[in-house]
Each structure stands twice: as C-alpha cells, then as structure tokens.
Write a structure and sequence with these properties.
By secondary structure, this protein is an alpha/beta fold. It is 48% helix and 17% strand. α4 links the parallel β3 and β4.
C-alpha cells in the first residue's frame, strides 16, 4: 500500500469532498493520510501549546512515513495556508515527491522562490494530480 499525505486548507473550514474525489480517481493500492484525523482528540486537549506540539509531531511523523505529499490549494487562491507551507517544507526536508494542485490562474507559489523549489510537480486539477501520482509513486 502506497501512502500519500493529503494537505490542504483545514478540512473543517473548507469543502473536503476532494479527498473522496481523489480516492475515486486512484487504484486501491494507494492509501491516504489526512492530517486532521485526530481533530476531536485535539479539541478535547484544548488548543494550547501541548496540543499544537502534538499536531506538529503527528504531521512530521506522517510526512516521514508517506511516499509522497499532495497539497491541494484550489480552495485558497492567492494565499496558501501556513500549515500547507509547513507541510511542504517537511516534505522537502524528507525528500518526498510533492504534487501541488492550484487554480490555473494562481501563480502565488511560483512567486515564492523557496516554495517553488520544493515542489516536484504542479497540477491544475485533481485528475492531473492522480495521473502524476500513478506515474511517479
């Protein structure tokens, strides 16, 4: 089973149907790691430094264990979420393939030199991203 880390805007604030859409586009040999899967447990802990450190450690371990990272920024054109940029940095540090899906008219990441260098592949649709994943991972 090939694990793919899925990064995107906080799924509790934005439409997360893209997870299912991507799942439907890829063969069963792929499994997905979703960062906020412990959301309810974290909220029980309260949003404090301990909870934030837990989130960072969990995300770091998840990125390490995955083969690739897919970052979907189609829902936040013009301003990539900080969390996504942190996950991009983690992926780069652990030498993971990174596929970023952006709106075709959004060139924000291209203007951020460090981010542009960390991206392995760019796509403008989830279909393109799925095609790239099948060919690379």
């Amino acid at each position: 089973m090939t694990k793919i880390y899925l990064s995107g805007p906080n799924t509790f604030e934005h439409d997360s149907n893209w997870y299912q859409e991507l799942h439907d586009l890829l063969p069963r040999r792929y499994s997905f790691v979703v960062p906020m899967r412990y959301h309810h447990k974290i909220m029980e802990m309260g949003r404090d430094l301990v909870a934030d450190r837990f989130i960072m450690r969990r995300d770091t371990l998840d990125v390490q264990r995955c083969r690739a990272v897919l970052i979907n920024l189609t829902q936040t054109p013009g301003k990539p979420p900080t969390e996504c940029m942190v996950e991009l940095g983690m992926a780069f540090a652990y030498d993971k393939d990174v596929i970023v899906v952006t709106d075709p008219n959004d060139d924000t990441l291209e203007s951020i030199t460090a981010a542009a260098r960390a991206i392995t592949y760019s796509a403008t649709t989830l279909e393109e991203a799925a095609f790239l994943l099948k060919g690379v991972v």
